[in-house]
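From the methods appendix. Each design record in this collection lists the tokenized structure first, followed by the designed amino acid sequence. Records were kept in a plain field format so they could be parsed without special tools. The example shown here is representative of the layout used throughout.

RECORD:
FOLD TOKENS (469 positions):
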């Protein structure tokens, strides 16, 4: 059974849906020069083939979209603030009033329907200037710019937003230093020393956000956000078990520091053995003690690990990858589907921290087909999406029965949007279909998919009715 106040809803990120990439004084973000996501080279300036420049035109259509979310009964809506709408270059002295006003209106619109905004402060959209002039999070100055930015938005929205996330999938910087950390230095040239120093700067900045936020409003709930991908041993061979543990440590370190306030011993060992000397002041150590109120994470899939070099092949996956699991099927994009892994990871994080958890991303990317329904209206019969979500919701319920404290669930891409990894629109996650295609055609019209009505019923029944429609 789900608790009475369970926060059901959906999630998006500014850069994947807003479009309007230069409207009202917005500066460029790193996404404006990533037309192919992680699959292609970045460009010097924005190019027409970058679907994110227009997104799904959420910037102009958010009222209609929030009304549809309200119709489904959303209690929470996760989105991000595009940092470059507030500080167009990132290092500006004063914020951009027009950008601040946009989010005022957006959050007011949510509140009008009793929808609680859940706001990511930095979701793969570092201002481009911070990447080009400072090399992103490698540079400690980013901490100062981030502090200035979060102070402005915490003050501005202190009566409108209660739930905050500091950095989206903070651990993904290990795989995608440019998209995740705004690091301009090409990955192959980046040393481990630079990479982990950047990680440290982000962890300290995140702890600063917790401290600053609580000073501005004691009722704020501020969480970290981790890309979670449980790692199973490929076989019961103890060497595989340890390989899985070590791979998992790489990601767990981020949650450990956020939830406990210090680096775990296994991380210090990794630094020692790899010649990494983190430049860490005593002030940093103090600041890290500002631990998060809750731990949030994305969950799409699990992977395996092995110590056997021959079997150590990397499958497709959400930014981080791993050895495919022979027991699981995969989505059209090769992401292996593992609902039970969600119960597993919820228990794992709860046992480790005893802090409330929040599933802030989960969903199925699929190439939906828009058809004409019985009554003549256009729709999508996305039973595959309904099945995917149902199985994950059931496993969350199991975890709650296990004693896990779970605050809520926001499915990823509750309205179709541009994919982060491949920058395509063909990979759809939404309950709402958006008429926009990869070739840049389409009217941006919105259509309710079958899953729209299904999720409405799930929320109405507080998770009790998840059966087929
Ligand atoms: C996560 C990101 C999201 C999102 C999602 C789905 O990694 O936080 O921004 O896009 O994955 O990934 P994709 O869009 O690549 O299918």
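DESIGN:
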């Amino acid at each position: 059974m789900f608790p009475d106040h369970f926060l059901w809803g959906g999630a998006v990120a500014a850069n994947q849906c807003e479009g309007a990439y230069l409207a009202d004084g917005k500066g460029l973000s790193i996404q404006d020069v990533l037309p192919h996501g992680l699959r292609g080279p970045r460009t010097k300036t924005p190019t027409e083939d970058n679907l994110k420049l227009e997104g799904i035109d959420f910037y102009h259509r958010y009222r209609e979209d929030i009304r549809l979310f309200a119709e489904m009964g959303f209690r929470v809506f996760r989105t991000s603030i595009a940092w470059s709408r507030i500080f167009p270059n990132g290092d500006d002295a004063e914020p951009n009033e027009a950008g601040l006003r946009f989010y005022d209106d957006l959050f007011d619109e949510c509140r009008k329907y009793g929808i609680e905004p859940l706001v990511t402060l930095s979701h793969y959209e570092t201002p481009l200037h911070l990447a080009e002039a400072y090399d992103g999070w490698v540079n400690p100055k980013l901490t100062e710019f981030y502090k200035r930015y979060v102070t402005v938005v915490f003050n501005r929205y202190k009566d409108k937003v209660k739930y905050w996330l500091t950095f989206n999938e903070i651990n993904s910087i290990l795989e995608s230093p440019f998209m995740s950390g705004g690091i301009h230095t090409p990955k192959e040239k980046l040393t481990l020393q630079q990479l982990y120093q950047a990680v440290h700067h982000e962890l300290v900045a995140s702890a600063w956000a917790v401290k600053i936020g609580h000073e501005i409003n004691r009722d704020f709930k501020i969480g970290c956000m981790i890309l979670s991908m449980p790692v199973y041993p490929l076989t019961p061979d103890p060497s595989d078990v340890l390989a899985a543990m070590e791979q998992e440590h790489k990601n767990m370190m981020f949650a450990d520091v956020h939830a406990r306030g210090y680096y775990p011993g296994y991380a210090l060992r990794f630094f020692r053995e790899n010649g990494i000397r983190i430049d860490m002041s005593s002030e940093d150590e103090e600041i890290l003690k500002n631990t998060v109120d809750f731990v949030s994470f994305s969950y799409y899939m699990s992977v395996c690990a092995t110590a056997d070099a021959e079997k150590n092949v990397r499958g497709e996956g959400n930014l981080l990858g791993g050895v495919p699991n022979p027991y699981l099927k995969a989505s059209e994009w090769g992401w292996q589907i593992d609902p039970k892994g969600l119960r597993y990871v919820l228990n794992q994080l709860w046992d480790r921290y005893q802090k409330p958890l929040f599933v802030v991303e989960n969903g199925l990317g699929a190439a939906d087909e828009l058809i004409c329904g019985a009554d003549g209206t256009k729709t999508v019969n996305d039973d595959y999406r309904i099945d995917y979500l149902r199985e994950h919701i059931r496993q969350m319920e199991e975890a709650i029965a296990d004693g896990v404290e779970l605050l809520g669930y926001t499915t990823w891409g509750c309205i179709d949007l541009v994919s982060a990894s491949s920058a395509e629109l063909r990979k759809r996650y939404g309950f709402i279909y958006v008429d926009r295609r990869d070739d840049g055609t389409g009217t941006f019209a919105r259509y309710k998919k079958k899953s729209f009505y299904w999720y409405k019923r799930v929320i109405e029944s507080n998770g009790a009715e998840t059966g087929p429609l």
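APPENDIX NOTE: The domain at 7-460 is CATH 3.20.20.80 (TIM Barrel).
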